[in-house]
């Protein structure tokens, strides 16, 4: 039975349990002993890793003795720096919103713009500036190294892809971004949009992504597509492509078993809607000083149609 290690497991109970159901033995690690995903894995450990650990894992792949589902370390570094990622996209012929470093802003700057952290995640340190005065203020206010990016005016999409070890795209599931909080999708719908599916596959194979990745883009009026971010990991909206039939855990386990993936583009259910909610996990002290689950009551949906209870 394959064993899967999840670093910085945090609140990602959805991902850990999905791999459990796919037949894997799961090990979750986090620096926080109260991270709920720890207690949904078969085993857990309290390890002081950061939220930005893909570069560490990508560089240590030869020392770990396990399959690391990440592209090469250089690409991981580029994608982690949003400005360098923007430059990479343009070099590879991938559309990206106009972006500048604070010292290189043009005199005639079309507003509004966004001040964004170069090493940001979870929508931290993002500010919208509608005037030049606001822009100057936010550039002085933000505590992190930042860039300035044009505001996209089209519809936003997120596309969850999965690639094999040679960077060949085996699956791509687009979803709408109905609502997000803190940079994480909480409501969305799967769509079988072949324009987006083929677009995402082209990007994944151009960059030679490996394993799971999340491509965030806008389709502007007129059809032009602009990529704002690519995360070489499962996206925050992972439950939606999973429910739509993406079978991403099974694809990962197949790679670990040495199998060759056959592309299954379009083999998912469209129109699946995700709406996320808060739940909880109660813990109590065990005899050895650790914590263990005490009780967990997850609400089950009871209404099948509007008005029913």
Notes on the protein architecture:
With 309 residues, the protein is an alpha+beta fold. The protein has helices spanning 13-21, 54-59, 61-64, 73-80, 82-91, 132-141, 194-207, 239-243, 248-256; strands at 3-6, 25-30, 43-46, 99-100, 113-117, 126-129, 146-150, 155-163, 169-176, 179-181, 184-189, 211-219, 225-231, 273-275, 282-285, 291-295. The strands form five sheets. Strands 4-7-5-6 form a four-stranded antiparallel β-sheet, with helices on both faces. Strands 9-8-12-13 form a four-stranded antiparallel β-sheet, with helices on both faces. The longest helix is centred in the middle third of the chain and has 14 residues, at 194-207. The N and C termini lie far apart (42 Å).
Q: Quick gist of this model?
A:
The protein is α+β, with helices and mostly antiparallel strands.
List the helices and strands and how they pair.
Blueprint: E1 3-6, H1 13-21, E2 25-30, E3 43-46, H2 54-59, H3 61-64, H4 73-80, H5 82-91, E4 99-100, E5 113-117, E6 126-129, H6 132-141, E7 146-150, E8 155-163, E9 169-176, E10 179-181, E11 184-189, H7 194-207, E12 211-219, E13 225-231, H8 239-243, H9 248-256, E14 273-275, E15 282-285, E16 291-295
Parallel strand pairs: 1-2, 2-3
Antiparallel strand pairs: 4-7, 5-6, 5-7, 8-9, 8-12, 10-11, 11-14, 12-13, 15-16
């Amino acid at each position: 039975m394959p064993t899967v290690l999840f670093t910085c497991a945090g609140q990602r109970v959805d991902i850990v349990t999905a791999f459990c159901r796919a037949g894997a033995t799961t090990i979750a690690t986090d620096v926080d002993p109260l991270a709920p995903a720890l207690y949904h894995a078969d085993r857990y450990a309290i390890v002081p890793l950061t939220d930005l650990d893909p570069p560490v894992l990508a560089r240590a792949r030869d020392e770990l003795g396990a399959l690391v589902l990440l592209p090469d370390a250089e690409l991981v570094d580029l994608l982690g720096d949003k400005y360098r990622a923007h430059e990479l996209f343009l070099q590879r012929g991938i559309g990206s919103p106009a972006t500048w470093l604070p010292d290189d802003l043009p005199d005639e700057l079309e507003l509004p713009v966004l001040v964004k952290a170069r090493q940001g995640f979870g929508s931290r340190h993002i500010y919208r500036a509608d005037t030049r005065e606001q822009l100057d203020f936010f550039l002085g206010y933000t505590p992190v190294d930042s860039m300035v990016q044009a505001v996209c005016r089209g519809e936003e999409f997120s596309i969850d892809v999965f690639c094999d070890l040679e960077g060949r795209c085996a699956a791509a599931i687009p979803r709408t971004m109905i609502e997000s909080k803190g940079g994480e999708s909480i409501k969305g719908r799967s769509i079988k949009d072949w324009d987006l599916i083929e677009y995402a596959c082209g990007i994944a194979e151009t960059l030679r992504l490996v394993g799971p990745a999340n491509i965030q883009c806008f389709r502007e009026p007129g059809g032009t597509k602009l990529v704002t971010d690519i995360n070489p990991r499962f996206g925050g909206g992972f439950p939606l492509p999973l429910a739509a039939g993406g079978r991403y855990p099974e694809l990962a386990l197949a790679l670990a078993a040495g199998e060759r993936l056959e592309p299954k583009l379009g083999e998912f259910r469209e129109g699946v809607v995700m709406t996320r909610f808060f739940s909880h996990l109660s813990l109590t002290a065990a005899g050895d000083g650790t914590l263990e689950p005490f009780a967990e009551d997850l609400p089950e949906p009871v209404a099948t149609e509007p008005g029913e209870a």
